[in-house]
Specification:
This protein is an all-beta fold. The chain has one domain (26-312): Neuraminidase. It contains no helices and 26 strands.
Length: 318
């Protein structure tokens, strides 16, 4: 196959002249907790073929348990539990930083969330990103939004049905889903929003299990929620059809009972990275979103990490 430097589309996965896949095959994972607790490292995973992660660059602030979202060109990492040596004395962070997905390098400041918080999730379409839920002394029903192609502070989007932390999120081009988490208790609820407008969440249906710290990813048709903790770790992978409403169905199982993973996808492949299966994990596993079945081993992260946030430039919202 010839090389097509700088040329890419969602339907093809050409190799560039460096041998690394073009943006539709790149997943990024950051805001994780490694052996040093707070990680600045962003890792890059090739979704097109099983392989180990490589270093992409560093965040502006070491933190974990934040959210991530992406457009076709940019990835944005928001919030988290911050490294006190790099912050202002408040554990929770309101920092958003961004990278250009096609070019490895360190992150740049994007702006600030409306509220410092950790245990939030991100979702997006091609232009707008939404950060959902979280915790800073209390559970939040907050949803913030940004215009991914610009920089600046987040703006209020609306409220989740219930204040909750440790949610998972995914999106189609029009609709965002927010599932699971810890509300008054650990929940299986799924909210949905229309990304292009603003407003409060609406009931979508229920996941098959009530868990927090699940991982969410999607194609334009299907939303996937996997793993999670609270009352014991889970290996369950659920799926929903994003354009409809209703309860989730069983998709298959992870390679281990696991919580606190990062997740990212393109239109074909879903990637789950790191997490905790009794200890911090470096395992990367993958699924084919359009089918059902168990996940398979995809490779390894650079280090064992939990509480990761993942995103890509070719997920279901693009």
């Amino acid at each position: 196959m010839p090389n097509y430097q700088g040329v890419w589309s969602l339907s093809t996965q050409f190799q560039n002249t460096t041998g690394w896949p073009s943006p539709p095959s790149i997943a990024l994972f950051g805001i994780g907790s490694d052996a040093a607790t707070y990680s600045t490292v962003i890792e890059k995973v090739n979704m097109a073929t099983a392989s180990n992660a490589v270093d992409f660059g560093d965040l502006t602030q070491g933190r974990y348990r934040g959210g991530a979202l992406g457009s076709a060109t940019r990835a944005v990492f928001g919030g988290g539990n911050a490294d006190l040596s790099a912050g202002d004395g408040n554990n929770e962070s309101d920092v958003m930083d961004y990278v250009t997905i096609a070019t490895s390098g360190n992150a740049t400041d994007f702006g600030n969330l409306t509220q410092k918080r950790q245990a939030l999730a991100g979702l997006s379409n091609s232009t707008r990103g939404v950060f959902c839920g979280g915790y800073s002394g209390s559970k939040f029903n907050i949803m913030d939004y940004i215009t991914i192609g610009s920089t600046g502070n987040a703006t209020d989007f609306g409220d989740l049905i219930n204040a909750r932390l440790a949610v998972a999120a995914c999106a189609s081009t029009t609709r965002g889903l927010i599932g699971g988490g810890d509300a008054a208790s650990i929940t299986n609820e799924i909210d949905y929003i229309t990304i292009g407008s603003t407003g409060n969440g609406t009931d979508f249906g229920d996941l098959t299990v009530s868990k927090q710290d699940r991982a969410g990813l999607s194609s334009s048709v299907r939303g996937i929620f996997a793993g999670g903790g609270g009352g014991g770790n889970s290996n369950v992978i659920d799926y929903v059809t994003i354009a409809s409403t209703g309860n989730a169905s069983d998709f298959g199982d992870l390679t281990a009972t696991k919580t606190r993973m990062g997740a990212a996808s393109n239109s074909i492949t879903g990637i789950f990275a790191g997490g905790n299966d009794g200890s911090k994990s470096n395992v990367v596993e993958s699924i084919t979103i359009a089918s059902t079945g168990n996940s398979t081993d995809h490779g390894d992260l650079l280090a064992a990490k939990q509480y990761l946030a993942g995103c890509s430039g070719s997920h279901g919202g693009i």
